[in-house]
Prior knowledge:
The chain is of the alpha+beta class. It contains five helices and six strands; from the N terminus they run αβββαααβββα. The chain has a six-stranded antiparallel beta sheet, with helices on both faces. The two termini are 14 Å apart.
Amino acid sequence: FFAQPVMDSLVERTQSPCNLAMLDKDEIISVLRASTIHSPGAPTPLNVGRRFPAYVTSMGRALLGALPPEELDVYLARAEIQKFTDKTVTDKAKLKKIIRDDSVKGWSFVTSEQADWVASIGVVIRNAAGAAIAALGMGWMAGNVPDQVMIGKLLPQMQDAARQIEESIRQKR
């Protein structure tokens, strides 16, 4: 898969694990991962094939934000929103606002919602036609380093990696 070398390079530069996930109905499924043995302060990357409800992850929220508004409404109407931690957003109206706001800024950030100790960023990867097909995600141990420091360190490099993957997709056409 042509995203793997880009992800490996990103992990090498940042020393933080990276995942690529796709939306599968109401969940994300991890389809690629890259990590180093020495990723200090980073959570274990998602195993390939691992699933999570989309609403509780940064990659899921990034992908939900790329849906047309009516599809997001359908998703929110049918989704069974569970509380994973005390910080999990369970109010559907609030969740919709967060997802739409993230969509406008072009990335999603989630902290301590799926697990108390995980913070992560997700950015969408689009195909040549502009449709969201996957999301790139990077995470860290919440509280080890201030979130804004990690966002400042990882986000620009993630956005660049997403652009490289999208360029590879366009070239494969």
